[in-house]
Amino acid sequence: MPHFADRAHSAAAPEDVWKLLYDPTRFPEWWAGVGTVERADPGSYTMYPDGYPDFPMPQTLTTAPGCVAISCQVSDLRFEWRLRPDGTGTEITVDVELPSREAHRLPTQRDLIHRSMLALAALAATP
């Protein structure tokens, strides 16, 4: 199964990063490629990609202390975000898994997630 990981540092406290990561309605503010989000039940939401307002993509969201896992119900991509205090802010890591049939999307997903990590880190640190 194709996968990759990325990491970033935010000057923000873990609680401030968590507020952006836990709330899918905030994803369009920092997650590259996410156009809009509609919240459904507490453990699910629907994401509409940038440029595709008529293409709903249901997602599940589960949490554990310091961890948010998101699974796309359409393409089976899985994102596991983790936060860890590092003394000067927060270390943000993400592990991404793609099913073999989506392997061709690996370079694009790497780029989108890297840009998203940097945007998340910066937005969380903005007063």
TrEMBL record:
<dbReference type="InterPro" id="IPR023393">
    <property type="entry name" value="START-like_dom_sf"/>
</dbReference>
<dbReference type="InterPro" id="IPR019587">
    <property type="entry name" value="Polyketide_cyclase/dehydratase"/>
</dbReference>
<dbReference type="Pfam" id="PF10604">
    <property type="entry name" value="Polyketide_cyc2"/>
</dbReference>
<protein>
    <submittedName>
        <fullName>SRPBCC family protein</fullName>
    </submittedName>
</protein>
